[in-house]
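Example record for the data management plan.
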Amino acid sequence: MNVKVLSIKPSQEPNSYEVLLSIGEDRQIFKFTTEVNQVGGRQLQTTQGERRFSDLFRFNQRVAMNVSKLVVKLHNKEAVELPADVGNFVTPEEAISQLKPIASSVQ
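Corresponding structural encoding:
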């Protein structure tokens, strides 16, 4: 199923966004939060989706990363063209069937 980001809107809470996704024919809204922390004299920006987003896209990490990148761009006031295709959603069964066996090296 194709996944698209249809809209990214600032939420009422600071540094939070509501992201509307289409997953095939289904539409869902997820909350994302961006934080900037000081680490070792440098600023570190982190952006993450709510738990429900992480759970749904557990086997679709590339899609999740592409969605997060768009939220980061918007947060950093960069241009974001929407709607944006962010990848294909696969079920856990499909993801497992695509795994390649790990070659074991016995010495």
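Summary line stored alongside the record: The chain has one domain: 2-90.
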